[in-house]
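Dear colleagues,

As part of the handover before I leave the project, I'm documenting each prediction I ran so the next person doesn't have to rerun anything. This entry is a single chain, and its sequence is reproduced below.
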Amino acid sequence: MKNIYVDTFIEMVNSSEKPSPAMEATTSPSVVSRRGNSKFVTICALMCALVGAMICYNSLNTDTSGTGSLVQKEQIVTSVADSSPFNRRQMSGMERLLKSEPEPQDVRFTKEDGLLEKITEKLNPVELRFFGENGDAELEVGEVTAKNKDGKTWGEHQKRTMVPHQFLHLHHMKTGGTSIDRLLRCSMDRLKKEANYDVPYYSIHECSRSRFSKCLTDSQNTCRDRMKKASVMSYCAALKYLDEFGWWHNNNEENHVKAFTVLRHPVDRVWSMFRFQTKNCYECRELKDIYKQLDAGEDTGLDKLCLDQIRNHEVNNLLSSEWPLEVTQLDAENNEEHAELSTQMIEEAIDNMKNFFTVIGITEDLPGTASILGMVFPWMHLDGSEEYGTTSQCALPHANASPSNNRCGEGATHWDLPSHPDQETMDLIIKHNPMDMELYEAAVSYFELQKKAFGMVDDDDGEEEKEEEESNP
């Protein structure tokens, strides 16, 4: 197979370093020497960027199904290669997490120790809250008598109604969010059927455009009252709209809302989105051709919401402020002002990830994510909760798989797309999702800290620790 990295490298060096004939005729030996040194520095810088990119690409062997096999630790933790002249040094995911953390007062502790302490405290089991209990107000509408399917009451046994605004699932498309939503719905059904709780629920997704737009722009829309009363909400849109919907609570300052979200490697998420909406969104075109049109400044004729899904969508969803430009409008590689905006947006997204949310999951370890959710929110445990009187089991299904016939082949047959994009397409996905790449690295580091807080050690690591203990009694 042709080595595109070497070809790209040679082309970049030749185009950036080759002097014009006129300059060659007039240049002194000392200047030539300096140019040689400059060329050497340029070659080294470009090689570092390209090697980083190759490492990143080769690590992308994750299951695009969304709930498939676990990814090994070394495959999850990838590097982001950015050849932007405005980005002096690439930070690791952990460095990004710790950038806004305060310096510890005790010199024996590190910033990472401080963040781990915060995470450990945040991951304490969360109890359900009901009207009339633990200082919460009485239910103004009065108690609701439970009824069976025939409409007959269950005597004096009354439903306990949950207080509004307790749990929020922020759903990014093609991150396994539908699987998490199924777990959420199953857990709520158990509370209703087995424990006789009233669990007000609401779900709203930006993909239901008309409904979402009406709810966002019309404060008198019926959705607002249901959102106001909802104890649990599944929400598929940007954080910045939660304030309008009454769920922001000043950046969740007092942590009233227990929010959780799942993030996915950008290459896998974008490719999964493309396979899922090949016809409806992307009109049976090659993804690489769509990106090339965008690079050329051409009008693709495609829907904006569909195009937004393949360009830094996860960062966009975690932004809570209004910015002068959208993430899709930034050219951080060639514009210094855009590069600075990009950095600030990534920092806001990471800070919101750390501060607004109680649990962060990653698609590449959905079982581990579900395990953490079950420990923090016992009512969502796969095996039920003795505390809340639920005994039936819930599953973590693989939902929203790519269609078996996308009707993009000849005669409306299936265009069989591979599980992973080819190298050229992969390169273009990374090029158009650099902000999501950085966010994802930080999310993986945060996820590892959550596992550390729970003592969830991988088997390999455990074996290594055991061997070390045996060799050093």
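The CA atoms of residues 194 and 390 lie 6 Å apart. The first helix runs from residue 4 to 17.

All the best with the project,
I.
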